[in-house]
Amino acid sequence: MPETKTRWDIFCTVVDNFGDIGVTWRLARQLVAEHDLAVRLWVDDLRAFERLCPAIDIHAAGQRQQGVEVRQWPAQWQPAEAADVVIAAFACQLPAAYMDAMAERPVPPLWMNLDYLSAEDWVIGCHGLPSVKYRHVQKYFFFPGFQQGTGGLLREHGLLEQRRQFQQDPEARRAFLQELGVDPAPGAQLISLFAYENTGLASWLGAMASDRTPTHLLVPEGRVLGDVERWLGVQGLAAGAVHVRDGLTVQVLPFIQQEQYDRLLWSCDFNAVRGEDSFVRAQWAARPMLWHIYQQEEDIHLDKLEAFLTLYTKGLSAPASEAISGLWRAWNVGGEMADHWQMTRKHWPELEKHAQAWCLEQALQADLATALVQFYGNWI
Q1: What percentage of residues in the chain have a pLDDT greater than 70?
Q2: Tens-place pLDDT, residues 39-90
Q3: How many CB atoms lie within 10 A of CB 59?
Q4: Are residues 195 and 225 in contact, defined by beta-carbon separation less than 8 angstroms?
Q5: Which is nearest to 351 in space by CA: 265, 271, 292?
Q6: Hey, which residues are catalytic here?
Q7: Mean pLDDT across the chain, nearest whole number?
Q8: In degrees, to the nearest 5, what angle opens at C-alpha 261 toward C-alphas 256 and 267?
Q9: Which CATH superfamily is domain 159-362 in?
Q10: Pick among 3.30.1360, 3.40.50, 3.10.450, 2.60.40: CATH of 7-154+366-379
Q11: What domain of life is recorded for the organism (predicted)?
């Protein structure tokens, strides 16, 4: 008799467009491809998912995509057998009937809450601890993170080697950019911008426009386009639009799939990213970056920002640390960016080396998918 694959269920509610589904989709595919698991991904919004996976049938109750069984999470839950491992992504509440199915299994499943990424010190102490119980089924905290004692970061096997080969091949970069219709001028710095709405953008665009080094800014379709339009004095920006103001060329890109977005980050000299998924991918790109953290009530997100900066800036000289930290802080309160950008540019070579060192340091930890599988192995 062939050995039955371990069955995993991942539940995802789409909260902020693509962040939650972006993380769970990457995780589900990696668990299938690298760990030979049977994975069902339950999603409550297939229309948002369709942007990441155009092959998805948004009307199908169940379908298989890239080895993952994708299931609609309907408002009216239909009976389903509970899996061996159950992941509630980002504290989403499981259907009551499914929780009953977990409790009725002869052997209770491993039930984990996959939490949001944070660099805060308390995460290490809480990672892997028991949480609440439902009847006799115990839930556990599982925290991604940047330090030993956490669950690590999503990173597919071979990703960094793929990135290294790509970045050392100018022809591969040129061909990829050409596919996107991007043809930067010789000597221009290439920057990607993926962000939430931000009142600080106008001052940053102004600083880039007046910089002696020309800048080609690539803006994938998204929420920040309204701010770009206001600065340019235009309306209706869409994919393919190109506008030039002094030393700054602004080009709007279509929404691209995850593998293409990775290559976009690898192609750029500097990446402005947002949320969680693109934030992690920018770190694997090993380029200087700017993070727009998801805003939370009472500004508690700024504590998370400071916690990450404390880790990230270790090893930098005091002036370089002050420059990049000032840039990040200004960006995340919608402040003036020009002076901070000029200071950052002064320390560019050091920040480039640091981004590479940080990437290698993070790669010393087990990746998130492997850490989850190891946690299950230890649990049973």
Answers
A1: 99
A2: 999 999 898 889 889 999 999 999 999 999 999 999 899 999 999 999 999 9
A3: 8
A4: no
A5: 271
A6: 20, 276
A7: 95
A8: 130
A9: Glycogen Phosphorylase B; (3.40.50.2000)
A10: 3.40.50
A11: Bacteria
Angle between helices 338-346 and 318-332 (to 10 degrees): 150
Which residue has tokens 């900066």? 309
